[in-house]
Amino acid sequence: MDNHTIAVIGTGAIGGYYGARLHHAQCQVHFLFHSDFDHVTQHGLKVDSQEGNFSIPAEAINAYQNSQDMPAADIILVALKTTQNALLPQLLKPILKPNSTIVLLQNGIAGEQVIAEQLSHSQIGGGLCFICSNKVGPGHIHHIDYGNLTLGRLNPECDSHINWLTEQFQAAGVGADFAGDIVSARWKKLLWNVPFNGLSTILNADTAQMMATEQIVELARDIMLEVIAAANAHGTALDSAVVDTMINNTAKMQPYLTSMLLDYRNGRELEIEYMYKNMLDIAAKIGVPMHKTETLYQQLCFINQKIQTR
């Protein structure tokens, strides 16, 4: 178990941060880069963190530009944006072993089911990243706040891998826990992501600006209650009391530009399929109305279409 090989597919704000943490915990980590490859092979990977800065020197990082050059991995951490998920079959097949466990460190819901079907592979897990982290330059990540990680799986077949990974993250100083069923865990993460990623993009505002406006706070609260209603009807019990906790925590955090807002500002396609459409489709099938959430999604579709046609 101690010699498990870990692959990080997508070394950006999320994959770079968590992969570097695992590297410093003496794990065998191999990183797939895209545009940052040349920079990282010359200068290494740098993380500025509110918990203390750290890095991986160029001579110590296992960096690759093509997954075909990577070794087969026991655990594959996917940290790509969900807008790039169409690439996953071709990226993962060269490094996939029969007993590999794929862990999607992504937003939204239903990603695990999709990749399980595409690859005919049953050992699929997911990770929910409760973190404020942005990529600020080539091979350069700024970890602003939080950092805890909740891991889960589609079926118990990969429990041993997920348990081992949880332990490695804990050894690396990451607050990690194994939640069991990933679907239930994803509903809990949607509770924050759905209102605040979407509203921040529509309003072009950070969390502090949104929390300073009473009407926006109330709108976020209403959307969260719609998510809770859908989750409960789908089989994941969520208590409405958690809404106040999340609202209060958001008000206390450092001003944060959500990942979707950063994508919008940088002209990148928005992650609306996995974060909104999949959830709305589930809600429609079980007869749960989500009027305010659907309105938010429709506005995001307009913005996303403008981005795609530039």
Automatic annotation (TrEMBL):
Keywords noted in UniProt: NADP, Oxidoreductase, Pantothenate biosynthesis
Substrates-to-products reaction catalysed: (R)-pantoate + NADP(+) = 2-dehydropantoate + NADPH + H(+)
E.C. numbers: 1.1.1.169
Alphabetized SUPFAM superfamilies for the sequence: 6-phosphogluconate dehydrogenase C-terminal domain-like, NAD(P)-binding Rossmann-fold domains
Pathway noted in the entry: Cofactor biosynthesis; (R)-pantothenate biosynthesis; (R)-pantoate from 3-methyl-2-oxobutanoate: step 2/2
Pfam families: ApbA, ApbA_C
Domain Ketopantoate reductase N-terminal: 6-155
Family matches, as InterPro entries: 6-PGluconate_DH-like_C_sf (IPR008927), 6PGD_dom2 (IPR013328), ApbA (IPR003710), KPA_reductase (IPR013752), KPR-Related (IPR051402), KPR_N (IPR013332), NAD(P)-bd_dom_sf (IPR036291)
Domain Ketopantoate reductase C-terminal: residue ranges: 181-300
Nucleotidyltransferase as UniProt keyword: no
Functional summary from the UniProt entry: Catalyzes the NADPH-dependent reduction of ketopantoate into pantoic acid.
NCBIfam families tied to this protein: apbA_panE, PRK06249.1
Family in the record: Belongs to the ketopantoate reductase family.
Protein name: 2-dehydropantoate 2-reductase
